[in-house]
Amino acid sequence: MNETPSSARVHIGFFGRRNAGKSSLVNAVTGQELAIVSEVKGTTTDPVYKAMELLPLGPVIIIDTPGIDDEGALGELRVLKAKQALNKTDVAVLVADASVGVEDKAEQDLIKLFQKKQTPFIIAYNKSDIADRSALDLLEKVKTEPRGAHSVCVSAKNKTNIDALKERIAALAKTEELKLRLAGDLISPSDFVLLVVPIDKAAPKGRLILPQQQTIRDILEADGTAIVVKEYELRETLLHLGKKPRLVITDSQVFAKVSADTPPDIPLTSFSILFARYNGLLAAAVQGVQTLDALEDNDVVLISEGCTHHRQCDDIGTVKLPRWMRNYTGKRLEFAFTSGGDFPLDISPYKLIVHCGGCMLNNREMRYRQKCAADQNTPITNYGVLIAHMQGILKRCVAVFPAFKDGFC
After folding, report:
1. How far is the C-alpha of 198 from the C-alpha of 269, rounded, in Å?
2. Do 171 and 46 share a structural domain?
3. In this structure, what are the phi and psi dihedrals at residue 76, rounded to the nearest 5 degrees?
4. Would the pLDDT of 201 be above 70?
5. Which domain does 374 fall in, by range?
């Protein structure tokens, strides 16, 4: 409960050629033996993710990636994994060998990729303790260039300028901060908010699932009052509350019952829809869900989840949603599934993407997935938006948001 979720942590990725000293620099920055260090090229074969506290930033995810210049068929897969890690990176550190600079084509291509994805980046010239004089003169010239404002000479071995590097990372990370709220901006101090929370069998025993935890915290931070009930307790609670709640937020799976039990003059939405707005997906999701009504037999729908939870026999993503969508459309739909960090590069085979709330993915990765859909002209929607649409209550469930107050955008 008290740990900062990975989605709310700044993701810092370390990239560069093999043997540039990425893993050594990661260890120096974190003060831990986080990454395996070896003179053998290609020691890091997969991105390594580590959640930790890093001053002066606070909670972060450190990502150590494979060499961007790896070779061979297996090497190409490693390079692909490194580039995919960039999709969730808030601040990138390009680790270069100070004795040679960043003249290598792989490094130049990586810089172009940072710029294309609008990822703030720093060039850390490592091994500056053994670089010759001419190389250091070159670094002085680099510092006068626009890119040089985010360059620093470091030595992972001698711990030289490590604090300066961390301060540069922190400065860039602050420019990436988004003032996002789940529900706090929808209420006023002292407002009551009713949260309808069925006991989720997929959640660890004794815990609420992450979206519920985060929403409760956001309501409390807005000085509101969060009242948590099960779906069959809602009607009785509303009768005896003594004060009309400002908002009812429900698990999307019990939308039908909660909508029926909540008077029309009380705004209603779901945790999943709140996360769609939080991740910048809501407008696209509301538009994309209209595709559901035009699906035909044998159309393929991609259902994508950001986590890898244990599957129950009536799992929402792989069982319930396909069943509900087939029943709603009356069509013989086909389904494909992804989970965790997996998301296909080619989404052209799919007529519609249905994404979970994305509570385990950071905002940058969710924006990347949405852009993939837009670039390939594939409609994308969200669990809660989809279920509300099938229940015929979508307009009600998005009317709570200012952008949708007068109808769909």
Report:
1. 15
2. yes
3. -60, -40
4. no
5. 286-391
Predicted confidence (pLDDT) per residue in 251-297, tens digit? 999 999 999 999 999 999 999 999 999 988 999 999 999 999 999 99
- Helices 383-391 and 321-329: angle between axes, nearest 10 degrees: 40
Q: Which residue has the tokens 């040089």?
A: 148
Q: What average pLDDT does the segment 185-207 reach? A: 81
Boundary-marking domain end, from 229, 249, 274: 274
What is the reported pLDDT for 147? Answer: 54
Q: In 176-278, which ranges are E strands?
A: 192-196, 225-229, 247-250, 268-270
CA atoms of 356 and 272, how far apart (whole Å):
7
Task: Look at 358 and 310; give whichever has higher pLDDT.
Answer: 358
Treating both helix axes as pointing N-terminal to C-terminal, what angle do 210-221 and 271-278 enclose, rounded to 10 degrees? 70
Query: How is residue 51 written in tokens?
Result: 């959640």
Is the residue at 405 inside a domain?
A: no
pLDDT at 1: 35
Same domain, 125 and 36: yes
The number of distinct structural domains making up the chain is 3
Task: Specify if 47 maps to a domain.
Answer: yes
Residues 10 and 124 in one domain: yes
Residue 406 lies in a domain: no
